[in-house]
């Protein structure tokens, strides 16, 4: 049995850059943190580390014009975050995302390895968005291993589309937060959640606008399973 850790390193890079005075010191800090806190606890036979990119080369900006438009400039203490990310990609300490985000690369790899015999993966991250992936997860912030089954992953996915994500400027349904989204989906079988979410959008926005409103959120929430796996009305998760 081979174990593989699939790592979304963006948050580690941000932490490593915090209050550093040079790229050199930030890079050494990253090497220490990614090894000690993110990779070593998994005891994996292989580690695959992904990071984002420093520009707007991300399909979500084309599909969701307001995506992350509410983000403020990085604080002064994190001014080396983007230069550090570029350096990490340059020296091949992480694989950079092209045209997408690190989240997408993580899920694409996880889906690719799912069918490989005698391979077990652990998704290493602190981003709740990746809980849409069934399998073993490790959260370095909380030093917590946890398992997500297919039903839990599906429930998480559709609840996110209902409530949106204010940090990424994805609206969701008005006045629907975490608790309300879960209440709306509780007891709904996995195969009926999509129609439940679609019906909620139709009820709120009417027949002429509901699809566009749904797409404004879903295109940003949806994490790719393969390179052409964009969200479409009528498509499955």
Describe this structure in words.
- This protein is of the alpha/beta class and 237 residues long.
- It folds into 2 domains: 2-148, 5'-nuclease (Rossmann fold), CATH 3.40.50.1010; 151-221, DNA polymerase, domain 1, CATH 1.10.150.
- Helices cover 44% and strands 13% of the residues.
- The chain has a 6-stranded mixed beta sheet.
Task: Produce a short descriptive summary.
With 237 residues, this protein is an alpha/beta fold. It contains eight helices and six strands; from the N terminus they run βααβααβαβββααα.
Give the averaged pLDDT, no decimals: 95
Helix content: 40-55%
Per CATH, the superfamily of the largest domain is 5'-nuclease
Largest sheet: 6 strands, mixed
Per CATH, what is the topology of the largest domain?
A: Rossmann fold
Q: From the 3D coordinates, which CATH architecture of the largest domain would you assign?
A: 3-Layer(aba) Sandwich
Give the topology:
Layout: E1 2-8, H1 10-17, H2 23-39, E2 46-51, H3 59-63, H4 81-90, E3 95-96, H5 102-114, E4 119-124, E5 135-139, E6 144-148, H6 150-163, H7 178-185, H8 193-221
Parallel strand pairs: 1-2, 1-4, 2-3, 4-5
Antiparallel strand pairs: 5-6
Brief descriptors of the model:
237 residues, alpha/beta, Rossmann fold, DNA polymerase, domain 1, 2 domains, 8 helices, globular
């Amino acid at each position: 049995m081979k174990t593989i850790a699939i790592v979304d390193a963006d948050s580690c890079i941000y932490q490593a850059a915090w209050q550093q005075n040079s790229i050199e010191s930030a890079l050494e800090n990253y090497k220490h943190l990614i090894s000690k806190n993110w990779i070593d606890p998994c005891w994996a036979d292989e580690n695959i580390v992904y990071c984002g990119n420093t520009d707007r080369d991300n399909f979500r900006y084309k599909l969701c014009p307001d995506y992350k438009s509410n983000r403020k400039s990085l604080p002064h203490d994190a001014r080396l975050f983007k230069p550090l990310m570029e350096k990490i990609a340059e020296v091949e300490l992480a694989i950079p995302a092209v045209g997408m985000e690190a989240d997408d690369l993580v899920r694409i790899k996880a889906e690719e390895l799912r069918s490989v015999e005698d391979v077990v993966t652990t998704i290493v991250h602190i981003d709740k968005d990746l809980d849409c992936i069934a399998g073993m997860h490790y959260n370095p912030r909380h030093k917590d291993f946890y398992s997500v089954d297919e039903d839990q992953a599906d429930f998480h996915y559709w609840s996110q589309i209902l409530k949106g994500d204010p940090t990424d400027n994805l609206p969701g349904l008005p006045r629907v937060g975490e608790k309300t989204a879960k209440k709306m989906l509780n007891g709904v079988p996995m195969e009926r959640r999509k129609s439940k979410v679609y019906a909620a959008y139709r009820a709120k926005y009417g027949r002429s606008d509901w699809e566009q409103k749904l797409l404004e959120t879903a295109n940003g929430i949806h994490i790719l399973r393969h390179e052409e796996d964009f969200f479409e009305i009528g498509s499955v998760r």
